[in-house]
Structure formats: structure tokens, C-alpha cells
Amino acid sequence: METVKYLLSEREMPEFWYNIVADLPVPLPTVLHPGTKQPVGPADLAPLFPMALILQEVSTERTIEIPDEVRSIYRQWRPTPLYRARRLEKALDTPAKIYYKYEGVSPAGSHKPNTAVAQAYYNKQEGVKRLVTETGAGQWGSSLAFAGALFDLEVLVYMVKVSFNHKPYRRALMETYGARVVASPSEETAAGRAILAEHPDSTGSLGIAISEAVEVAVQRDDTRYALGSVLNHVLLHQTVIGQEAMAQLEQAGDYPDIIVGCTGGGSNFAGIAFPFIGAKMRGERDVRVVAVEPAACPSMTRGKYAYDYGDTAGMTPLVKMHTLGHTFVPSGFHAGGLRYHGMAPLVSHLLELGQIEATNVQQLETFAAGIQFARAEGILPAPEANHAVAGAINEALRCKEEGVSKTILFNLCGHGHFDMTAYTDYMAGTLKDFEYSSEEVAMALAGLPSVG
């Protein structure tokens, strides 16, 4: 019998998160205060995050222990399965071996609860009563709403307006878990009102929604902000994915030649890739790592590596990252979770160091890949995950053209059961590709802050 899925027992779930900062050959650039442009300290971040997360954000330790209470909740869906995509291999007629780690088995349907549960736990430990956040496609908002219900925390979610309208069932799931969901930009915040005054028909962006959430978070002592991607501690929490994949591939007697991940802010990409990149940087095993982003929001492939704000209003600390400019508002394409102007500083840094590659794909190609995958493997991917599927298929077809057999691993970071409007639009032929002119990109980058 040919094995299709590789499973770990609950006892084999990782006990530690892996911190790639410990293995970087060149340290990350300093994070700067948005007002003074000086390096930030823990006190500067305290209005936004509990101290435990701030310490994780700046940690240089290679491993950080996962609290028992967090691991006990993880057990509800972790370890997640690793699949060998044998039917997809056959459909592609490729000599490549394709594996995918499936994170859609979590209660919220994606990888996001890996950090949502951890963030809710640390906030609860510090006496926080309310969490405020943003969400694009709604997978992060759903996950934080789920975690908030577990820890009896009030959750307020600013959801990017285009996704708020496209994904009513994702919004309903958040409300089922007990969260309040507001379309962003909204009239509830100064940041939202300013955007609407200038652009009354604004479809929103993650940068705008972050501005609204941060503004609300700092107004009450019992409230903190939670972020679903980009920051070091968020990427740290996702590394359970890659650690499990390592153990499962060992079961299969295999190791990836190529790792593919979709990238918007960087969290699921980091989750699958960082443990393998760490092994590569320590000189243990080589691997080629490909980050796939949407052509409609190409921060790594067409952006600039520079200091920029994480939000549109310029309220967040300045980090050095690949960015399209914090004022950039991407078109309303369906992969809402990838509609972010910047890339995680750690992912950006690895690209600058030559440890990873970046490419972009158009919307129609990703949906074609997702449907091909669903018809072969039976799982309907989220539009975000379709970027990884497309990247993996492209690599498998390259193996076919070159007549070589390589092992490809990708992260299927979530299912598409709440994204049927997008699939319906694709099959009706109403979706289109988006491309930005060099002038449009240059205009967005012209607003980058000046940092000495």
C-alpha cells in the first residue's frame, strides 16, 4: 500500500516554538519608534502587547517553551496531517513527489489559531479583558474570536470592507464565537473617518484596518492589540507547522528539495519554512525555499526594502521590510489575507540574505490551480493557499520538463469553504487579473518615511 497521510500522536507535538533569530548570520535591523525614529524599547510596546509577547518579539533564544495550557488546546487539532499528493502527481504526470501540510483541520479552518491561542493566553495571564484586531479574509479574525471564547476575552475585529462584503459567512463565524465585527474603514475611529472623508467608496486594506484597531487598543487600559502576521512573535508561534512536517517527512523517509509557501504578511510561510531554513543556515541540510505572493500585491517582487509603517495612518513602529508603501491600497482581489502592503521583517531579511526566493502569480492562475488541486486531492483550498498550490504545481511541472524527481513541500494553510463566492465568480468568468504600472508602484513608494 502507498501511504497517503503521515500522522503524529499528540505526544509527538512540539514542546517548543523555534526562533529563527538565533540562527541568522546577520541580525535584524532595529525597530524604530514612529515618532522619535529612535530604537523602540519594551515600554514603547507595552500599550499594545503583554510583556510576555514583547519579550518573545525581541528574543534571541533558539527555542521558547510552549505553555502547557496552550499545548492542551493545540491538541484539539494538532498535530495536523501531512499528505502525499499522489493523485495530483499523477494528474500532472510529474516525476516530482509533492507533500502538503494541511492546516485547514483547525476549528477556524486555517493555521491562524496557532498564534491566536498563544496570544489570547498571554493577554489573559496579564489581566487583559479585551482584544482588538484587524482581519482581511477573516481567517485571522475567526481564529482570534475562537481563542477569545476559550479565554473569556472580548474581541473586536475591524474587517477589511471588501472582504466584509465578499465573505458574510466568515463574518458570521466570528460573531458565532462572540466577536463584534466592523467593516473597515469605519466611522468608529479617527483613522477610519479620515480615509472615508477622502475616499468615501474605499474598499479598505489591512493597513487601514490595523490603524483602526491600534487606535482603539491604546484607548483603554484593559485592552490590547493582537496581530495575525508580520511580527516576530507571531511567526514564532507558527513554527509548530514546520517542526511537525520535519518529523512526518522523517516517517516518509524523505526531505524536501523545495518548499513553497504563499505570502501576504508571512506567518504561514514562516510556519512551514523557518525550521527547514534554520537547519540550512546551521549547515545541516540544504533546501530551496520559494515565497509566492499575489501579483496584485507584490511587496517582495516589486516593492522596496525600506523602513515603513505597518499601518496606513503611521501609528505603528517602523520596521525594515519589503513594502509597497503604507499608503498602498491593493485592488479588491479575492485573496484578502494577502492584501498587505508589507512583508514580515524576518521574511524580508531572509530574502535580502539570499536564503529564500520570491515570485508572484496572477489571480486567475491561482484559482485554476486550486480547482485542479481540489479535483485531484478533494480539498478545496482558500484563495490565499491557492498561491502555494500554484507555486507547487509550477515546480512539479518544471521537474517534468527537466526530467528530474524532486521532493516538494507546501503548506495548505486553510480551506476555502467560506470562499465560495470567489470560486463562483471564477467559474462564471467574472474574475480578472490585476497589474500595477511602474508609475503606480513608484507613487506609493514615494510616501515612505524618511529615516536617517
TrEMBL record:
Q: Which Gene3D superfamilies match?
A: 3.40.50.1100
Mind listing the UniProt keywords for this protein, alphabetically? Amino-acid biosynthesis, Aromatic amino acid biosynthesis, Lyase, Pyridoxal phosphate, Tryptophan biosynthesis
* Catalysed reaction, written as an equation: (1S,2R)-1-C-(indol-3-yl)glycerol 3-phosphate + L-serine = D-glyceraldehyde 3-phosphate + L-tryptophan + H2O
Q: Which cofactor does it need?
A: pyridoxal 5'-phosphate
Has the keyword Lyase been applied to this entry?
Answer: yes
**PROSITE patterns for this protein:** TRP_SYNTHASE_BETA (PS00168)
Q: Got a GO cellular component term for this one?
A: cytoplasm
Which InterPro entries does this entry report, sorted A to Z? Trp_synth_b-like, Trp_synth_b_CS, Trp_synth_beta, Trp_synth_beta/beta-like, TrpB-like_PALP, TrpB-like_PALP_sf
Keyword ATP-binding appears in the UniProt entry: no
Tell me which residues make up the Tryptophan synthase beta chain-like PALP domain. Answer: 76-414
Q: Which NCBIfam families match?
A: PRK12391.1, trpB_rel
PANTHER family per UniProt: TRYPTOPHAN SYNTHASE, TRYPTOPHAN SYNTHASE-RELATED
Its quaternary organisation is: Tetramer of two alpha and two beta chains.
In Swiss-Prot or TrEMBL terms, this protein is called Tryptophan synthase beta chain
Taxonomic lineage per UniProt?
A: Bacteria, Bacillati, Chloroflexota, Chloroflexia, Chloroflexales
**In the UniProt record, what gene is named as encoding this protein?**
trpB
